[in-house]
Amino acid sequence: MAENQQSFRTWARSRKFVLSRQGRVIQAEFIRAVVAARGIGGQPAFEAARREWAARHALHIDHAMYLSEVRREPISLTGLGEALAICSQSRDDVIRCMEHLVKLELVLAENGSYRNGPPQLP
Predict the structure, then answer these.
(1) Parallel, antiparallel, or unpaired: how do β-strands 107-109 and 75-76 relate?
(2) What is the model's pTM?
(3) Which domain holds residue 42?
């Protein structure tokens, strides 16, 4: 883990991340859960949907916002930090979360081979 952690901290600032196929599936499930909770109404329903989604996938509830940011477009760690600063996510939080999502293969380090954007779900 320390080796993986060190490599993450030394990656070029320009290195970008994209959702894997499985990451897209899990992120789409989050959106469906939140939309369904909206029909029930209120913050408690939203929070319950987030907790259930996270538990079902053995994730932390904050992982949903990372997957959502990465879904939009390939994004760097710096870009994630800027996008999630409003949610009180520190640089260390961003690195720790992305390490976990990469380890689970929900997020991939973009290698520049996607000429037309990251792969799409069928």
Answers:
(1) unpaired
(2) 0.77
(3) 17-107
